[in-house]
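Predict both folds.
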Amino acid sequence: MKKNCIFIAVSAVIMLFLPWCAVTFVSDGGFSDCGMAVCFLLFYAVNPMASIIIGILSGRNIRSFWFQPVVLSILFLFGTWILFNVREFIFYGIFYFILGCAAMLITSLIVRKRAG
């Protein structure tokens, strides 16, 4: 239960707080190009790495953490719905979900193969 709360908190920071910081602090003051660059960095580097890491950590105990890739994707969609137009980012949410689930399943198979 404690690890689930930690995973959810980390997912919330990455998927909600970091985009909010990019929109709030980087986009102000005439630095709109910098804000777009930070958003690209989030969408193409930070978020995929976060979904893979959450998937790997979830795959170690898939019975307890199977829903973590779902939570990460939902938090991403919720954050983009608040900050941007959600219709444009549904593909990214689905992609992050697929990455997380693939990493979770591969890790689960490796853990099972090593154990037995």
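Second protein follows, with its predicted structure tokens after the sequence.
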Amino acid sequence: MNKYIDHLTIAEYETIQKQLKKRLEEEEKAMKETGNTKEYIELRFILIKIKRIIEKYRK
């Protein structure tokens, strides 16, 4: 049974999380080079939110 959260399944959220983690590594490198931390911090917060959604609805 697929559980939908805002029209996305848990598996889709997990895929998004995996892709964002890859993007986070790129942003971390860019942050070290340029010193701009805004996008890196935004990605970290989004990953935390997605992790909480997955944990909440995985039950």
